[in-house]
Amino acid sequence: MKKLILFLFISNFAFAQTAVLDTNSILIGEQINFSISNTISKTEVWPTYEEFLVQGVEIIEEGKLDTSENLISQKFIITAWDSGSYYIPPISFSANSKTEGLLLTVQTIILEEGAKLKDIKQPMEAPMGWSDIWPFLVGFLILTLIIYLLKKYVFGEKQNNIKIVPKMIISADVVALKELEKLEKAKIWQSGEVKLYYVNISEIMRRYISERYKFIALELPTDEILQNLRNKNLEKEDLITLTTILQRADLAKYAKSKPTDKENEDSLEFGQDFVNNTKNNKSSNSNNTNHIPEINKKIKRGSEPLNVRRKFLKNKIMSDNKSFISTDYDEFNENTTTKHSRTLTWGVWDHQLVNRYNDICLRHVKTRGIDALCLDFSVNSRDWVFLRDGKLTLNCDQENIQLSFHESSSKTEHVGNELYCFEYGFYQFPNPKKDLEKVCNANILKIRISGSGSYEEPNKKVCQAFQTYCQQFYNNFYDKTKYTDSLNKKVGKSASGCFIATATMGNYNHPKVLQLRVFRDAYLLKSNWGRIFIQLYYKWGPYPANVIKKSNGLKLLSYYTVVNPLSFIASILIKK
């Protein structure tokens, strides 16, 4: 009996601590298990490893500690990438408890006689044919048909009967004054909600301005609202009053400013005074209500009222004047800003994605003692360009004009899954009229945009478009007798987007949307059928886009059947 007890004691001591390999011999890169265990009562220290078990033996995966009954154990998956023998030393758990050392042999691959090691061949790209493209085109047509049918028969307004419904119109000043009165009775700022108080004041004033002066004030920043109102012949005192209200509201909303109680009371009174001083007296003197018949029927061209036809003819005449500039006057700073009404844009491609997107716009500023011609420039890139450390060089018939960059702001922003860098600023011409005339007259024009340690040289087509762009500005601003041929050319773009792609991706600057915009400018606009397609798309594209942006399911369907395939095809065609 004593011999049995002694045997069990010796066995327990001998096998309590173990270090085991699945096998002692492996090939290079082959993975095996390495397990260690010990009794809990005799464990004072547990080994920890980082990347290698020993030098040359890499840990692929480290298992979790496992305790069962009186044992604690852990498993590792290990491998080695070089042939040879590796000694795994004993593992010590305490002064009286440690494992035995192990030997791991790693063998190389045995080649047949005469065989040689060769590099792995890269995958071959299969040529793209019509069979790869037509499923996407069919899917796009089917999706367009489904959206059209939904728009027409499900979401469309029923126009079976012509109904004349009296519509009551209340003047904007009456609505604004009532809203301000409600806000005063609510006593929001008195209860500590100062930010909410100014949010309501700002919205009431912006809605009033939108209705009274017929521009979308709700979507514009304060500076642009005030700039638009300066052209509306407002009294200077009223403009100052509105400036005080909106700027105080902006500070309270965005800068966490805390106006005084007197300023809170004054803001409401200023709003009421502004509305009373600028209201449309004609509409206010008619009991604030008008009954206007609203007919749910389209009016054909020629059958509309005379004033509508006059407006149409006026707009047509204005569009035929070949005007490419717009001018704003700031009476507070006494400066006049004239800029090209369009923006010149081009992209730089890399690995089937737009790696960089550039926007430029010519701008002339004149004030006391200053007559400056600037080139507003913004770059949207997947890496910092650091324009502030570089310059813009215009090579006009081997003569260089160098423009320094003045940075306005820079930021990074996630566009989809990509992190893009945005840099904004302007280049200034040393001799405005003389330098611009050199660009316009150049037989060979080259451009180099340099940053910190890198530069971009736009291709010949971009340089030609930039020269035409400058000629249009020179003609409209300096001398209307020069460069008249440039007035019939279309360069740059106004604000227009890829409706379906933007609705699908949710961001106008998403890389997929940028690709399709570059494809439109660089490929479709060069052919008659492309221009016809763009006209039809601009006419009908907003309808399916409005439906898609309201549904996550339609966004997903549109991405896989329309946006992603067209983006892939566009990248191939642009490269060719």
What would you note in describing this structure?
The protein is of the alpha+beta class and 576 residues long. The protein has 4 domains: 14-107, Immunoglobulin-like, CATH 2.60.40; 169-284, Four Helix Bundle (Hemerythrin (Met), subunit A), CATH 1.20.120; 333-488; 499-575, no CATH class. The protein contains 16 helices and 23 strands. The chain has helices spanning 2-15, 130-154, 172-186, 194-213, 222-230, 236-254, 261-278, 281-284, 306-319, 432-441, 460-477, 499-505, 511-522, 528-540, 542-548, 552-575, and strands spanning 18-21, 25-27, 32-39, 52-54, 57-62, 66-68, 71-80, 84-88, 92-94, 97-98, 102-107, 164-170, 289-295, 325-330, 335-340, 344-350, 353-367, 370-381, 391-396, 399-415, 418-428, 445-450, 455-456. The strands form 5 sheets. Strands 14, 15, 16, 17, 18, 19, 20, 21, 22 and 23 form a 10-stranded antiparallel β-sheet that branches. Strands 1, 3, 4, 5, 6 and 7 form a 6-stranded antiparallel β-sheet that branches. The chain has a 3-stranded mixed β-sheet with strand order 2-11-8, with no helix packed on it. A hairpin with a 2-residue loop joins strand 16 and strand 17. Helix 4 (194-213) crosses helix 6, helix 5 packs antiparallel against helix 6 (236-254) and helix 13 crosses helix 16 (552-575). It starts with a helix and ends with a helix.
